[in-house]
Give the backbone structure.
Amino acid sequence: MITILLIFFPLLAALLLLLIKGEQVKNIALGAAIIEFVISIFAVMQFQHTADVQFQMNCNWINSLGISFHVGMDGISLLLVLLTTFLVPIIIFSSFKNNYKNPALFYSLILAMQMALIGVFVSLDGFLFYVFWELALIPIYFICLLWGGENRAKITFKFFVYTLSGSLLMLLGLIYLYQNTTAVDAEHLHTFNIDALYKAGRGLDAAHQGYVFIALFMAFAIKMPIFPFHTWQPDTYTTAPTPGTMMLSGIMLKMGTYGLIRWLLPVVPLGVEQWGHLAILLSVIGIIYASCIAIAQHDFKRLIAYSSIAHVGLISAGILALNVQGLQGAMVQMISHGVNVVGLFFIVDIIQQRTSKRDLESLGGIRNVNPQFAVLFLIILLGSVALPLTNGFIGEFLLLNGLYQYSAWFAAFAGLSVILGAVYMLRAYQKIMLGHTNDVTSSFAPLSGNEKTILVILCAAIIVFGIYPKPLLDISEPAAAKLAELIKLK
Amino acid sequence: MINLVWLVPLLPLIGFVIIGLFGKQLSKGLVGFIGCGSVLGAFIIAAGIFFQLTGQAEKSITVELFPWISAGKLSVPFSFLVDPLSSLFLLIVTGVGFLIHVYSVGYMHDDEGFARFFAYLNLFIFFMLLLVLGSNYLIMFVGWEGVGLCSYLLIGFWFKNTAYNNAAKKAFVMNRIGDLGFLLGIILIFVTFGSIGYHDVFMMAKNFSSGNPVLTSITLLLFVGAIGKSAQIPLFTWLPDAMAGPTPVSALIHAATMVTAGIYMIARSNILFTLSPITMEVVAIVGVCTALFAATIGLAQNDIKKVLAYSTVSQLGYMFLALGVGAYTGAVFHVMTHAFFKALLFLGAGSVIHAMSGEQDIRKMGGLKKYIPVTHLTFLIGTLAIVGFPGFSGFFSKDEILANAFEHNKLLWFLGVLGAAMTTFYMFRLYFLTFKGSFRGTSDQEHHLHESPKSMTVPLMILAVLSIVGGFIGIPEVLGGKHFLEEFLKPVFEDSTLRLIHHLPEQTELILMGVAITVMAAAIYYAYKTYIVNQTLPAAEEEELTPLHQLVYKKYWIDELYDNAITQPLNFISHGLHKVVDNQLIDGIVNGVGTVVNWTSSKIRLLQTGNIGFYVFVMVISIVIILFTRMM
Amino acid sequence: MRGGWRGNKMSAIQTIPINWYLLLSTVLFTIGVLGVLFRRNAIIIFMSIELMLNAVNLLLVAFSSYLSDSKGQVFVFFIMAVAAAEVAVGLAILMMVYRNTKSSDINMLNKLKW
């Protein structure tokens, strides 16, 4: 029941918003997002720390095709739902000062997207998963298209077509699996039920599992994105309005990693065995590649976009290492990355609002005029470069640990991101915050109450979960352990 | 007392939080009080722990605070280990840390970032205490990176200066290179032993045979970490640059405590290293090379802090030499005495700089003896200690290292003595040029010369006393003393010393001592002759230097080499990847697909003539073809 | 009694063998196709289409009768109804085209391209 509530409450709120006019829209949107967060907290409190899928709900949808509206959450899903419900209010709140035109539509789209994202994370039916997966694309497409920056039509179009073509491959893979499911009864020859799809995938021979792997992996790789399917990402992140970028990088990207965990690894273990090595190789190349490119960036937003590619590469490599450490690391890192990257993009937004610049070369010395901002920025940055006692470290350590068990060399190369991350992040910090002020930055206004609240919440999350990550780890541990077992049983 | 150990790091952390959050509202006096008080409190508890530990039979106590990270069979608690080694380091860190805090109250008094400075210092002490207290490698790593962060913040303390910021960034990045090695080492330890707690790891390691390749890999990776943090070849160039920070920072972080973390780490993992003879050789060789290399650079530097910085690098090299030859106690002993006299020297240098209104170039000093007598006397004591003048602390610790080196390999000993001679020369060069002779600065500066306030001189005096007596806890038995330190640290190094038996004939030991003293005396005399009798002055900036002198003065162009060999190619690659590979190649392919589709469509659409007759004709023909093919 | 698989009474339609119906219908249909293909006057094309439709109708009725299955004849009614509607709409369109172009030549109607 609570799962249904989690899915449809944002949709309801989104529809409601469209009926309202005026300034109240923002507050109502925020209120709805906070209520949603409270609901998810409620779910966390009721959650039993076992590997079982809980809060299940299964009703017929398109009966003749074996499609049902089957949702539920285990620890992995719950963590990602929690991430979504935690970030959306922050994203909405952070956009208050931007005064977007037609706010009702804007916030309604964000809430609609939240609904689709949660749907992706809780679906237990292949068809339903696909529907939510595609549904998530539509609001963000309009957000980017209607409120984006320069050149948005072209860039958004590319983003849309690119991710859509990935999704089509996924649909192909899902239908192929569907065709291989065994009959439930005389009337239902096939079903999209997740367990049936697992069984179908595992029943295939190695070659066919390989094909399914490629089809599904492409979809997830484009979404995350993994090198070399990433070229839509920097442009889109840079052009999208900042709340859109936050939705994209903070939450939507996790659809890809979640897809890997839920809809790829357990489905075709032999396919993973065949192609996993290549996939990890691409991920690791992506880590170094994106880190190197980030060093050469002048636009801070674009720099964060590339750093995000590096981070997500590590997550995907850790997942594909197929052990508990890697999976747990991926879970923690997904949460941490969500929090940190939203924080960083918010900082970009603050700077851009005040100076209308994102170019590193034209900024500098902000620390002189706004030390408070400098401290909060530094904390988020440290989380992003994975300093111990920040949330980023927990994930990175576990991921590298998991990857090391797969291959020491991969871990060593992936670990280079530790160094390169420090290089580009500190460079950016120095260029923006340190040194002397100039014309652009000398009148940098102090943080408003709202901005301070958001940054403090994010920084608190970064430090608290860096020091005491146990609550997060405990939620997903049984599910991750079960999954690792499941994958090993070829 | 021992169950209160969690208070030791917590007190500085509380200090940091209070000063960090409310620093602006608090008065400077209160900030100084909180900053120093929290460290003093930690010191008192640490002393209590130390004495309790000496008094009881149980020498290794683990205090578990809360579970931290767990995933599968990996389980890392947040817990502390109290044993002789960590309690000794606790004392050094909190003790020297407290004195430097007190000194900073005077030194930083007029700085607008006073509160910020104390916040950072307290945070540093917190992380340093985590580093030495952790009961597993990951907690050590937390402290390890944490002190790196504080080092970054404090080197770039005057953040308006781009050069300082660059130095800070360089320190952080170079440290991170080492940290990656350390991190991989930790992971390999986990993969090998299934645990990263010291206790479990060392227990299991004993069953490994000597020279096991896994242990060798682990220790080499750990050593990479030590190289970064303790500024050894090839990752040493950040330390001299780190002198950009305020002088108390150089004393605390870049001389007394943080840079010795690498020694602590190896001493802590002594059993792993003892079982990896190859790594031991590498450690010894890197150590002695660094000791010599840095000493030669130190010969020609003119910045008072730079000389001390290279001397620190060089002394750290000695400590690694000691570790490499298996003299763990000697290394720890030297860490301790070095903490005293190098902190003293840096603080003394700070006092000189304070008196000289910020001037750091020794060519513009001279004759300061009569203006700042306390600083002069304490600086002289520090100098005597570092060169190993008999009776001073450095004598005993350095002697122990050299004796052990001799036993291991005569060449190492010879190089060590050579380095010691150079150390003696450049330290006395520094002392003579600064304090003796006549004043060479501007008259403005001369007018302004004054002794530092009490808050600065008292720590100097305490450190001076420690620099003298600090060696007495480790008097070698040939001189009729008793090596208390060795006794105290025995539980930690027990398993290693069983495998590395030391015994040098008494006579040889005495001869070695004599040689060292003679060489030192000769070096002092040579320095005296050059700078007092002949009144030679180091060449001014614009003067032509002989090639060899130039080479040393320019620090062998190592910085330039790294810049050309690493930084610039990296930038070049980055730009290349961005502009060519990413934008042209990969995105080109993606856009190319789009272009192909567009082009094909533009051709195919021409079939759409608009002529209905044509459409019908095509339709009929197609139907006929389909019918025919079906019939076939 | 011949014909009528299920022993029904032979109807008038069945007095002619089925092959003749097939032949006639094919001829009619081909004429219609050729008319559509080669004539340019819209009205004539229209009539050719009707011819094709009716060729099909004829065949449907014939088979319906031979198979004693009334579904075919029902279909014919549907086709006739649709054809009537089609004529109504089609002629209206033609009228409009004629008013605009002063011609009923379909080659004038080639604007719907590229």
About this structure: Residues 560-631 of chain B form one domain. The first helix of chain B runs from residue 7 to 22. The longest strand of chain B covers residues 61-71. DSSP finds 25 helices and two strands in chain B.
